[in-house]
UniProtKB/TrEMBL annotation:
Keywords: Signal. It comes from the Bacteria. This is DUF4333 domain-containing protein. Residues 1-24 form the signal peptide. It comes from Serinibacter arcticus.
Amino acid sequence: MKRTALASAAAVAALLLTACSASANLTVSPEKIAEEAEGALEAQIGSRPDIDCGEENVDLVDGTVVDCLLTDPETMSQFDTTVTLSEVDGTNFKIDVQVASEPNAA
């Protein structure tokens, strides 16, 4: 009886691991996220900031929040910035960009 229960548990665990690896999320580069955020802010404020969203690919999942750093090209001040993904459909997505109201301490 114990062998049957262990064999069943092992089979279920193997099935779960297979399901996880088969349903990997699509990703987008941090450079693409930064480019989209720069464009969105440029459309709002009239000048294009420099945004760095790190080096790791980002999962394309609704609600994913990416921590970025915005540099104002005129003052070189840096601001914490978050980019939130929404309406993800394959590799298409929308973003919401939130920039801290105060620059980071020097």
